[in-house]
Amino acid sequence: MAYPKFKGIYQTLLKDIHNAGTYKKERIISSKQGMNITTEGKEVLNFCANNYLGYSGSDAASNPAIEATKKYGFGLSSGRIICGTQTIHKQLEEKISKFHSTEDAILYSSCFDANAGVFEALLTKEDAVLTDALNHASIIDGIRLCSAERHIYRHLDMAHLEECLQKAQSKRIRMIVTDGVFSMDGDFAPLPKIVELASRYNALVFVDESHATGFIGQTGRGVPEYFGVQDKIDIINSTLGKAMGGASGGYTTGHKELIDVLRQKSRPYVFSNSLAPMIVGATLGILDDLERTGQTLLGPLKRNIHLFRSRMTEAGFNIIGHKDSPIVPVMIGDAALASMFADKMMTQNIYVIGFSFPVVPKGQARIRVQLSARHTEEQINRAVDAFIAIGKETEIIK
Ligand SMILES: Cc1ncc(COP(=O)(O)O)c(C=O)c1O
């Protein structure tokens, strides 16, 4: 065994990560996901899950998952194109494309996979991709896998995007790639301007809606719906691992031919197992539930977002992100202070996480708060009260 010869390399690497203060520890949760969770032997109020609609840990997700498991089994031991496509996979793809008013959809084991598979399959070196500097890591990796010319435009900087589009005019296809809601900053992509530029410079528009599907926009169809540009978006990638049940799974939806090409060429689709029936069944159930009760959930989510944002601003905190975003970064600045702040919140039984470099730029450490439709007004107020008390104690606010 050669490992002892190499062991030191990894020990040094781990030491370096520790020394940089970026070693990540996992907090162990012994309950279901929810607004109240049990961790480290106590019940805490959870403000750091992507559980925007409260489906994670809910019966609305697990009951149809159980039914689907009974009917279609636990797993398929196959990828989709061998013997891994069941009727429910096709039903869900149809339902997702109906939800987004698109022509077709294709399922993946995760949105990370959807992002890893889409660019390489659709673009060649004759093409160009124009990507926001703060797009998610999976988009960055997916673009790395394709041979298209890469233009990274400054975050939300439409003048810079236009410059990049001008430079890419000689290419065969141009594809603008953006997150709908940016996960670290909670801001929205300026889709009206993006689609205008796309039309002027002949470009396709790709939006990753992982932090929007189900809860942003009038009926939860996401950022394109929020801005009224649904019919101008060519490709949407999204996850089933956040608002839509929170287990795992992802998809691409858009024009028929594009989806068909993905079925032929997208490597995480062709060379990986099909999505487990229980997740497919749960998502079908959740989409039905959203049709029935979606509007009921969106109201409380909006109320919570506005209550938290307005009380925190009033208290003197520097919070960023779009006014209608349930991702609310509370800016702290110093990395050690952000981490200490989160620890102090935990002593008040409020679970929030501090994010610092390299996840966000140096000097811009923050606590990222994520709100859910299922938080009660009392829970929001309790979290804000704890923020205010600790904010004063640490002299972040007066
Ligand atoms: C914008 C964005 N895209 C893609 C992903 C990956 O999604 P999944 O967990 O389904 O792989 C995430 C998850 O953090 C995300 O925030």
Automatic annotation (TrEMBL):
This is 2-amino-3-ketobutyrate coenzyme A ligase, mitochondrial. GO terms for molecular function: glycine C-acetyltransferase activity; pyridoxal phosphate binding. It catalyses: glycine + acetyl-CoA = (2S)-2-amino-3-oxobutanoate + CoA. InterPro entries: 2am3keto_CoA_ligase (IPR011282), Aminotrans_II_pyridoxalP_BS (IPR001917), Aminotransferase_I/II_large (IPR004839), AON_synthase_class-II (IPR050087), PyrdxlP-dep_Trfase (IPR015424), PyrdxlP-dep_Trfase_major (IPR015421), PyrdxlP-dep_Trfase_small (IPR015422). Its EC number is 2.3.1.29. Residues 43-387 form the Aminotransferase class I/classII large domain. It holds the Pfam family Aminotran_1_2. GO terms for biological process: L-threonine catabolic process. Its cofactor is pyridoxal 5'-phosphate. Belongs to the class-II pyridoxal-phosphate-dependent aminotransferase family. Transmembrane segments: none annotated. One of its GO terms (cellular component) is mitochondrion. It comes from Stentor coeruleus. It is an enzyme of class 2 (transferase). Keywords: Acyltransferase, Pyridoxal phosphate, Transferase.
